[in-house]
C-alpha cells in the first residue's frame, strides 16, 4: 500500500468506476479503494435478502417471491439512451465486451390522468391520442423541423439562431399548446423542470434529436437500453477495464482518510495504518463530507409486482415520465420498471421504482400519483436519500468529488458529471467520436 499513485479513487459507484477506467486507459497509475466489501457504492444492486436487510432489518423475505439470487434490484435505476453519451463511453473504452444489453420495451408519458406512448417522430405524432387533429399537424411540422435541423447547415435553421432563440420562442412559432410542450420538454428532451423554456433552444433540439436517433437505433418501442442483470454489472465492468490497464483495487478498506499537506493539497489516503501517496483524489461525497453541501433529497418507492405496469402495452421494461405540471409539483416524477426479461427478477416478477425530488417528508403520500399507476404490488419499500454536490475548488486541493445521483431514470445527467470531472482531472476533453455502428445490442 505504501506506494505513490497518480490518482486514488474512493468509492466504487458508477461515476467513480467510469473515471478510474478512463484514467487507467490514459496511462495514469490508479488505486481504487472502497470501504464496502462490494462494488457499486450507492448505485449497487441488491438481491432479495440484501433488500430485506436494508429496508426491513431482517433477512427473511417471503418464499412466494422466489429465489433471492434471481433478483438484481438496482438502488439507482437508470436506463441508457441507445445513442447517448454513456453508450459512447462504453464503446470508447471497449467495456461493451463485458456486458450484454437489451432494448427497453416502452417510453410513456402521463397526461391528464392517463398514460400515453411518447411520440418521437412526425409519423408517431400523427397517431398519438395525446393531441387533437389540428394540434397533431402543428406538432408534426415541429418534429420535421427538429429532424431536419443540422447545426452546421444554416439552410435547415429557417432563419433562427437557436443559440439565441429560447425554446419558448421556437415552440411559439409552431403554435403548440401547453400539453404538447409538456411531453416534448419532459418526455422527449428529458428536462427535469420548466427552466429550459427560457434557455436557448439548441439544447432542447439536440436532446430531441438524440431521442429520435436512439429510438431508430434498435427499432424498439423506446430509445433506451439496459444491461442484462441490471446496472450492478457496470461498475464491475469498468473495474475490470481499470485492472487490465494496471489499476489496483482494494475493497473492504475501512476508514479511508484523505490526507492533506500544509498547503491544503491532497497528498494521500490512509487506511488501517498505511498511507498510499497520490497527487489527486476522486471520490463520492461520503468520503469528503466537509467539502460538499446538501442540495436536495430524492424520495422513492421500490415495488415488487407480478404484472407489468397497466396501460403500457404489457411492456416488460418501461419508463413513464410524469411531468411536474400534470401533478402540480416543482419537479417531475419517474416510473421505472424492469423484469425477468432483463434478468433482474425471477420469471413472472417485475420491479418498479417511483422516484422524484422530495418536496415533503412523506414519500408514501408524495409518490402516490406514481404508485397509483402501478396496480397491485406484492411488496413496497420507501426510501429518501440526500443529494450532495461539491463546494471545494479542485485546482486548490486536487480533490474531485462527484455529485449525488438525481431522481431521473435515465443516465444523461450522470454522464455529463463524469465527463466534466474527467476534463477537470486531466485538462482535456474525452474524445467520443466513435463509430457507433461497431456496437450492437444483445439479441433476444
Largest sheet: 7 strands, mixed
So how many helices?
14
Count of domains: 3
Helix content: 25-40%
- Reported by name, the CATH topology of the largest domain is Guanine Nucleotide Dissociation Inhibitor, domain 2
GO molecular function: GTPase activator activity; Rab GDP-dissociation inhibitor activity
Function: Regulates the GDP/GTP exchange reaction of most RAB proteins by inhibiting the dissociation of GDP from them, and the subsequent binding of GTP.
Family: Belongs to the Rab GDI family.
Protein name: Guanosine nucleotide diphosphate dissociation inhibitor
Walk me through this protein's architecture.
This is Guanosine nucleotide diphosphate dissociation inhibitor. This protein has helices at 14-25, 48-56, 85-92, 122-127, 133-148, 167-173, 178-188, 201-218, 233-244, 324-327, 363-366, 368-371, 394-397, 412-426, and strands at residues 4-10, 30-33, 45-46, 73-74, 80-81, 101-103, 106-111, 114-117, 224-227, 248-250, 257-260, 266-271, 274-283, 292-305, 318-322, 333-339, 350-357, 379-390, 399-401. With 444 residues, it is an alpha/beta fold. The chain folds into three domains: 4-43 and 231-291 and 390-430, FAD/NAD(P)-binding domain (3-Layer(bba) Sandwich), CATH 3.50.50; 49-80 and 88-105 and 294-387, 2-Layer Sandwich (Guanine Nucleotide Dissociation Inhibitor, domain 2), CATH 3.30.519; 118-217, Guanine Nucleotide Dissociation Inhibitor, domain 1 (Orthogonal Bundle). The model is unreliable at 435-444 (pLDDT under 50).
Amino acid at each position: 500500500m505504501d506506494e505513490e499513485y497518480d490518482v486514488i479513487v474512493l468509492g466504487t459507484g458508477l461515476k467513480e468506476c467510469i473515471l478510474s477506467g478512463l484514467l487507467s486507459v490514459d496511462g495514469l497509475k490508479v488505486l481504487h479503494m472502497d470501504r464496502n466489501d462490494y462494488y457499486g457504492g450507492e448505485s449497487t444492486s441488491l438481491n432479495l435478502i440484501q433488500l430485506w436487510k436494508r429496508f426491513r432489518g431482517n433477512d427473511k423475505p417471503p418464499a412466494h417471491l422466489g429465489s433471492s439470487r434471481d433478483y438484481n434490484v438496482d438502488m439507482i435505476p437508470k436506463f441508457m439512451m441507445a445513442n447517448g453519451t454513456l453508450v459512447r463511453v462504453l464503446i470508447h473504452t471497449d467495456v461493451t465486451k463485458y456486458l450484454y444489453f437489451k432494448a427497453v420495451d416502452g417510453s410513456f408519458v402521463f397526461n391528464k390522468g392517463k398514460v400515453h406512448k411518447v411520440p418521437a417522430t412526425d409519423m408517431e405524432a400523427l397517431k398519438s391520442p395525446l393531441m387533437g387533429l389540428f394540434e397533431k399537424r402543428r406538432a408534426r411540422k415541429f418534429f420535421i423541423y427538429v429532424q431536419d435541423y443540422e447545426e452546421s447547415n444554416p439552410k435547415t435553421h429557417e432563419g433562427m439562431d437557436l443559440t439565441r432563440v429560447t425554446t419558448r420562442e421556437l415552440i411559439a412559432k409552431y403554435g403548440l399548446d401547453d400539453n404538447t410542450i409538456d411531453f416534448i420538454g419532459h418526455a422527449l428532451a428529458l428536462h427535469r423542470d420548466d427552466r429550459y423554456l427560457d434557455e436557448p433552444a439548441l439544447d432542447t433540439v439536440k436532446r430531441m434529436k438524440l431521442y429520435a436517433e436512439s429510438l431508430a437505433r434498435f427499432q424498439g418501442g423506446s430509445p433506451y437500453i439496459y444491461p442484462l442483470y441490471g446496472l450492478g454489472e457496470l461498475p464491475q465492468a469498468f473495474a475490470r477495464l481499470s485492472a487490465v490497464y494496471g489499476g489496483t483495487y482494494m475493497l473492504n478498506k475501512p476508514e479511508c482518510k484523505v490526507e492533506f499537506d500544509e498547503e491544503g493539497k491532497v497528498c494521500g489516503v490512509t487506511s488501517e495504518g498505511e498511507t498510499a501517496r497520490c497527487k489527486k483524489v476522486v471520490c463520492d461525497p461520503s468520503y469528503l463530507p466537509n467539502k460538499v453541501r446538501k442540495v436536495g433529497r430524492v424520495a422513492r418507492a421500490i415495488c415488487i409486482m407480478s404484472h407489468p405496469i397497466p396501460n403500457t402495452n404489457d411492456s416488460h421494461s418501461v419508463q413513464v415520465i410524469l411531468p411536474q405540471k400534470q401533478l402540480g409539483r416543482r419537479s417531475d416524477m419517474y416510473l421505472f420498471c424492469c423484469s425477468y426479461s432483463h434478468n433482474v427478477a425471477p420469471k413472472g416478477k417485475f420491479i418498479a421504482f417511483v422516484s422524484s425530488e422530495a418536496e415533503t417528508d412523506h414519500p408514501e403520500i408524495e409518490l402516490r400519483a406514481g404508485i397509483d399507476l402501478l396496480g397491485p404490488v406484492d411488496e413496497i419499500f420507501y426510501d429518501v436519500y440526500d443529494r450532495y454536490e461539491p463546494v471545494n475548488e479542485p485546482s486548490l486541493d486536487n480533490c474531485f468529488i462527484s455529485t449525488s445521483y438525481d431522481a431521473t431514470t435515465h443516465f444523461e445527467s450522470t454522464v455529463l458529471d463524469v465527463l466534466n470531472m474527467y476534463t477537470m482531472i486531466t485538462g482535456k476533453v474525452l474524445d467520443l467520436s466513435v463509430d457507433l455502428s461497431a456496437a450492437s445490442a444483445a439479441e433476444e
